[in-house]
């Protein structure tokens, strides 16, 4: 099932305090970026954030991990706290700090 544009817009709104947030459509789902860095996915109208040690500590006991799609590595599944803008923005900020910088794109010849 593909995700709805309205859900992607809602997620971007919820985490707008975490930097320059964009959602890019990918295969009927969405990649979520903060300041150009991919940190999460929206699949089947659910938010998944790449796991980091700081994110794991921040979430604590409420941590739920699941793969966003079949064959994918588990990510943090955000359900209960998706309405909490401040909490979610902080999770994104601390997670993005630990993620590697995107590799530069190669020029086509």
From TrEMBL:
From what superkingdom does this record's organism come? Bacteria
Indicate the segments forming the TfoX N-terminal domain, all copies.
14-97
Q: Name one Pfam family in it.
A: TfoX_N
Q: Which SUPFAM superfamilies match?
A: YgaC/TfoX-N like
Among Gene3D superfamilies, the record links this protein to: YgaC/TfoX-N like chaperone
Annotated protein name in UniProt: TfoX/Sxy family protein
């Amino acid at each position: 099932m593909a995700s709805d544009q309205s859900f992607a817009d809602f997620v971007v709104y919820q985490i707008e305090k975490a930097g320059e947030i964009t959602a890019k459509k990918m295969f009927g789902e969405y990649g979520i970026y903060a300041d150009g860095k991919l940190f999460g996915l929206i699949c089947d109208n659910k938010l998944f954030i790449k796991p980091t040690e700081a994110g794991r500590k921040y979430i604590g006991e409420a941590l739920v991990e699941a793969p966003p799609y079949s064959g994918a590595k588990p990510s943090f599944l955000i359900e209960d706290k998706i309405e909490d803008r401040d909490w979610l923005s902080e999770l994104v900020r601390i997670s993005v700090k630990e993620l590697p910088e995107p590799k530069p794109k190669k020029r086509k010849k």
